[in-house]
Every structure is written in C-alpha cells, then in structure tokens.
C-alpha cells in the first residue's frame, strides 16, 4: 500500500472527466511546481477524521458534509468563507442539540474547484466552446480564451485552498466557533424567518445549559472550538497525484490536498484511474453511488478501496433521487451489510433531484431534497442500519437557487439572486430548515 502509481500509468487507464490540455509542457511545469508545495492538511488530521467516521459507521455519530457545488477563486474572501462556516456551525449545533448525537463536521470546501460535466462542449447561439469544468480547469466566461483548459489554474487551486483553510482554522480556533456564540451566528436575513426564530429558541436553551455547566464548574475545551475538516471530489488527476505524499511518520501515502476526498458517480469505474489512485492513499474516502449501482458494484468497490475493511476508511454517498431511493437503496444496504463490510452511509439528496425550471434555470425543489433524506432514513430504519449523515450543496448567502422551503421561493424568484456557476445550492434559511427536519428524523432513528 505504500507505493503511489505514477501519473503515466493512471493516464494509460483512460481516465474519465479529464481536461484536454493543449500544452503538455505547461502541465508538467504546473505539476512539478505543485510537488514542491507544502501539504494543505496533515496525515494525522486525516487519521483523526477516519476515527470519527468509524464512529459514524458504528451508529455513534452523524456526519454533516456541506458547501459549494463549485468553489470559485473570486469566492475566496473572509466574508464568503465565514458565511459558509457559519451555516455549517448552525446546522451542526441544531443536529447535536436536538438529536443528542456527536456531529462530524466536514466542509465541501478548500479544494472543490473541479466539476464533472455530461458533455465536453457547450453551445450558445450557434457558438460551441469547451464546457466549463470549474475554476481548476478553465474560466466560466463564455469566450474562446477563458474556456481553454489552463494547467496554471491547478497551482491557483492550491493557493486558494490554502487561503480558505487558513481562514477556517482561524475561525474555528479563534473564538468564532465557541458555543457561546450561538446567538451571534443568527444575524441578518435569517433571524427574521420562522426557522431563524426556531433557532433563536434553541440557542436560548443552549445558553441556559452552558450557564448551568459553568455554574457547577464545568467548562470543557470542546465548548470553545470545533474540529472541522475539508473535503472535495478528487477529479483532476494531475492535482491529486501531485498532492499525494508519503507521510514521514508512517511511510504511507496520503492525499494532502484535503482530509476527505471522494470519487464521483461518473468516475467510479472499478478498473479506472480514480479508483486506482484512491486505493493507494490512507485518507478517509467516499464514493458517490447513483441509481445504476448494483450491490455487486458497491461490494467490489469496497473490496478494492478498503481491502483491510478498516472502519472509517470508506463512506458510500448515495444519490438516487427522491423517486428512486426507496426502491434502489434497500438491496444495496442489505447486501453490503450482509457481506460484513465496514461502511458509513451518507445521503446526498441534491444530485438526483436537479431539473430545469420554466425560467430556464437549473434548480431543485426543497421538498424533493427533504423527501430523499426521509426515504434514506426510512430505509435504514426498516433495515436496522444507521443513517450516517447528509451531504448537501449549500451557501451561507441569501441566494435564490432552489425552489420551495419556508420562504416559498418559486421559479420566478430564481433570477433575483442566482449566483452558482454550476448546480443550485440551498440558501442559509433552507439549510437551517433542513437541519431541523433532519434532527427530527435523527431523534426517531
């Protein structure tokens, strides 16, 4: 397990969803530069997350994974990073307090810059250009210059991720994540919403509990900081390979671009390059499983990616769609469980529920998102297994990208603040509403 396959052998496997770079020398230069850069995360932090996800697999904790569909370089600002962190902290505190389970907090950030696409090309008004594959690859602007894949952007991803992680670490250790801040996380547009008022009530209860704890002389360190981990889809092989290093403590390889990396639905081919690379690293990893996944597929992936059956090493992130989860998920869980595999199960209720609104915007119905999570919980309850977490695309801002929810956003509202460069995200009010509904499901689980 201590070897890392070379890049040429990975490319010989014909990897899916890779950029077509026009200048190979420029790619080699960018990769060589990345190989000299310090790690973004440390192997010991990855091991810590593995042990936390092992608790999720055992049914002793719940995983909250969320953040942007696709991060942008422009979005690396203190306000933007704080807003995403704030909504995740709010959601986590609702889940922890209302459901009485530890919540493992994983941001879909500091690396989520590349996106798989259903087509290599995009046509607008008779003009055809390469599809936008995320800021890691090319520019969003629909011009021939912007859409050429540029390997220098991989170095830019490193710097943007370093800045984001630096901000996150400062926030979570510098007092912002202190539980006594629960009221201050509920400022601005959220406070006036019904779900914001529900949160205020809960924050009041937490505050009273903390005051009681302090009065009896208990003030543990856990009240003042949180453990927060980064994650992204391991998509562009040049970047992930350059960031895979041998840990000096253990002589084992880790992908030090993020604590948790996952393989997407489009790149989970058993004999493919992504499965090959991630089978060698020691990070906790995830695999997205859609409605075409058979139980045999899932078992084969587990055996390939986690041959030692280490708890916390492998997470299956299911993305079926609200209408398919109750039919498709039970067979998968039953066979994987019967085969004795150590797996954490997480629900991605976003990717199976995307459609085009009458206004032309790509969107998701809040009710479909909730229905898929409810189906996920119902299936696990019926089988006696543990619904381990949720994986959601969200933002800390007041965007209008998903319809429905307590704010009752409609198709016509989408144009007012649609800011995503890729898929529609839940806004902060919808994210908080989701956390209360999931907390209720967790109580019953």
UniProtKB/TrEMBL annotation:
GO terms of molecular function: 3-deoxy-7-phosphoheptulonate synthase activity
GO BP terms, alphabetized: aromatic amino acid family biosynthetic process
The protein's Enzyme Commission number: 2.5.1.54
InterPro entries linked to this entry: Aldolase_TIM, DAHP_synth_2
Keywords carried by this UniProt record: Transferase
Transmembrane parts of this sequence: none
Group of enzyme by EC: transferase
Pfam families in UniProt: DAHP_synth_2
Family: Belongs to the class-II DAHP synthase family.
Full protein name: 3-deoxy-7-phosphoheptulonate synthase
Source organism per UniProt: freshwater metagenome
Taxonomic placement: unclassified sequences, metagenomes, ecological metagenomes
